[in-house]
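Input:
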Amino acid sequence: MSDVQTEFQNFFKAAFTVDNVIFGFDDGDLKVLLIKRGEMPYEDNWALPGYFINEDEDLDTAAKRVLEELTGLRNVFLEQVETFGSVNRHPFGRVITIAYFSLVKISNYKLQPDSIALKAKWHSISKVRDLPFDHSDILSSCFEKLKQLVRIRPLGFELLPPKFTLTELQHLYESILETELDKRNFRKKILSMDLLIDLEETQEGVAHRPARLYKFDRKKYEQFRAEGFTFELKESRKKMRKAMINHQ
Amino acid sequence: MSDVQTEFQNFFKAAFTVDNVIFGFDDGDLKVLLIKRGEMPYEDNWALPGYFINEDEDLDTAAKRVLEELTGLRNVFLEQVETFGSVNRHPFGRVITIAYFSLVKISNYKLQPDSIALKAKWHSISKVRDLPFDHSDILSSCFEKLKQLVRIRPLGFELLPPKFTLTELQHLYESILETELDKRNFRKKILSMDLLIDLEETQEGVAHRPARLYKFDRKKYEQFRAEGFTFELKESRKKMRKAMINHQ
DNA sequence: TCAAAAGTGTTCTTATTACACCCATGG
DNA sequence: CCATGGGTGTAATAAGAACACTTTTGA
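Output:
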C-alpha cells in the first residue's frame, strides 16, 4: 500500500447517518412521521427516524432503507436536502447526518409490525417542537425545501390518494405553503395546466354537494417536462410586496 | 461506557471531505477555480479543491478553510449544495464529500504562495469537462444551484468588483443563466428594484461611450429583505413555454 | 469619420388578482 | 329546509416581452 493510501486510511473518521423527514397529508393537515426513541441518548423522546449508513450502501439507498423498514413503502418520492455535521450535534461522538425528505400517501402506510415502527406516529407539522439533537433544524430545512420544490414540481400528488378532489388539492397546497389560496384562481390555474384527468366520478356519502374526483396525469407531465415545461404555482409574490409597502 | 456507546463507536466509519466549487467572473465569462492534483489518485489532473474535514471542525468551517488556504479570502459567500457518497466514488475507500460553492471577486484573488494554490487556475465553466472522481457531477450540481439562487437572491454582486456597469451585470447574469437578456428590459427591472447606487462616475479609457458605474446597496437590500421583499429576476418562463408550443 | 458599446420608451400580450352567488347532497 | 362544502366568470391591474435609434468616446 502506498504512503498516500496509508495516510488516507488513518485520517479522521466519523460515523455517518441519514435522517428522513417523512411527510404525509391527512385530515387537511400536513404531517410528519416521528418515532419514539428506544435507546440512548434521548430515550423515549419523539425524533426523526434515521440510521447508520452501511459500508456498502449509497446514500439514497440508505435513506430508502430507513423509509422501507419503517413504513414498508418503496418507490416513494425522496430528495436529499442538507447535511448536518456540527461537532457537538451528537453527545456520543462525531456524527454527520445527511437529511432527506420523502412524501408518502398516508392511506398506503402500514405499520411494520416487527420494526422500530411500532413506536412511530404521525404528528401535525404545526405542533411539532423541541425535537432532540438538531432535529428541529433538520425538520425546518426539509419543510423549507418542500415548500420550494412544490412550486416548481408537481409533488403534491405524491401526498394524496390516487383519486382526489380539487378542494383536497388546494388544502394540501395551503398547508405546505402556509398561506390561503383563492378557490377560483387555484382551480383555473391548476386545470389550465392540463395535468389532471377528470374521472367523471364524484364523492359519495358526504353531507353536501359531492365533489368531482380527479387523478394526476403523470404520463402527460413527463411528456411536457421533456419539452421544457415547468410546473409553477404562484399567487403569493404580490401579497408579500403589498404587505411590504403597507409596512413602510 | 454503555453498550450503546460501544456499539456506536464500533460502527462503520468513513472519511469525510468537503469539495468547494469556487466561482468567479472575469472577462465576460463565468469561471471556476481548479487545482492540479499533486497526489494520487488522478495525480496531475485538474480537479475541484477539497480536503478532509478535521475532527473538531464544523462543515462550513472546513469549507471556509479550504477556500482561505487556496485564495487567502475570507468572508465570501458560501453555500452548502449536496453531499456525494457513492460507495465507489473514491478508489482508495469510502469517502463522503459535502459539496459547497462559493463566489469570489476575481480581482481580490491572490495566489497563496506556499499552498497547493500554486497549481490553481481559473477555467471557463463552459470549457471544463472530464474532471476526476465524480467532480463533473459536483460541478453541475453547484452550477444548477447557483442558477437557481441567483434568481431569488442578489448573489451576482458577490462576483463583481465593487463598482460595475450595468452591461457587466447583465453579462454576468447571462453567463449564469445561460441565456440572453434584453438590454432595455434588464435595465428597467434591475433599476426599478432600487438596489443600485448610481456612483455618478463613468468608465475611463474605453474606446466607446463610457458607461456609468454603480454599486450594490447592501444596506437597503437587508432592510427590504427584513420587510419580506424577495429579489426576483425572471425573463425566461415565457420563452420556454413558447419553445414548447412550437415544438408540439 | 468610424467602430464600438451606452443609453433610452412605448406598445402589446399575458398573468395575476379580487370578488359573490347558486348548486347538490345528507341529515 | 337547513347546513355544508362544490362549483363557476369577469373585469381591473400588473408584469413581461418585443423592438430601433441616438449618443459618446478613442483610435
